[in-house]
Description:
The protein is mostly helical. It contains 17 helices and 4 strands. Helices cover 67% and strands 3% of the residues. β2 (228-231) and β3 (234-237) form a beta hairpin. It is globular.
Amino acid sequence: MILYFSATGNCKYVAARLAAAFGQETVSIVDCIRDGAYAFTDNTIGIVVPTYFWGLPSIVKEFLERANFHTDYLYLISTYAFTIQANGNAFKWSHVVAVLGSQNTCIVGSMALGMALVIITGQIDRSIGSALVLCTGVTIMVFNVTNSILLMILAALVSGALCGAINGVLAGCAKMPPFVVTLGTMLIYRSITLSVVRSISGSSSSQFAMISDNSNYEFLRMKFGTGKLSLGAFSIPYITFVFVLMVILFVLLANKTKYGKSVYAVGSNEKSARLAGINTTWVKVSVFIITGLMVGVASIIQACKIGNVTPASSGQSYEMYAIAAVVLAGVNMAGGRGKVFGVLFGALSYTTINFIIVSIPSLSVDIQDTFQGLVLIIVILIQTIGPVIKESIQRARKRRRAVPVGSTEGNTVQ
Length: 414
């Protein structure tokens, strides 16, 4: 993250000192930490980063570099608290727990991590909602037959990877448009699941449900799926820890591995990446497979949290929710740019926005999706025109700072 300073007060003084020390107009937070400087990371809140943060693991420093995500989320959760209180209710920790353990946070958020890699490579996956239904159906059937947690997990991951591989081969190897490919598989995966469940049950409106008589049902549903870890006066759902663990793994994958750099390279300029020796076809196929694996993880959470899946209705619009979480995370829809870490706060933000909309009593249920759609459009609009406006402002500032020949006035520091 780049530090931005206000034009007045101590912030201006610190900006000038840092710019002079490092010979540049903007200074990253890690530079400030390394050289023992104090700096404000937000020109409105004024968070101070002290020198003793230097020496912490790199993952902590990377978190600090992305501090704008959690400050933005604080604004959202504050708005949510204000909305709850405006309705005459007290805002409690249980409201936060509801956000942390929500399906939009843990289930959609897990799939959004894979979606982020797909979008960074300049592709799209419309099939994850239907793939979730298929994988959850397979997961529940394997559990009901075997009563084995290990086989259940393997079935979820393998079925998810196969769904992703089909998308990846068609989009990456056959060079078909990802939008069209995943639109087709979206219809196929849900249709297959619906056909199977109806042939098994003989009913026109059935669902896959976990058998409560199995010995491991109590652990999966009551302890893991809906259980919480108590931390003093607070409690956090277990499934939230799974999502956070996935975020950490994806941050390491994207930022600390050669593969992660290849993903960004393909999204930035596929031709240049190919000339640089990167197997662009494999990268484009693999991101779909990884997304499929994350669909498998989400199907495990779905099975444990909900206990069933209804092919006709489950997972509806989840691909849109995942895209919304990725966009809110700051990942550019054109590909090549964006931080996977932001998906954590993107998922939390989208869930919180949804909770805010639902908590407004004057809004009809029929109109709530309109506001969710408006949020997504506004964020993409900001992504699109934001850089253009910023560049125009910078050019205007440079023209205003232009000093006539012979003038003794020096240049000012931003």
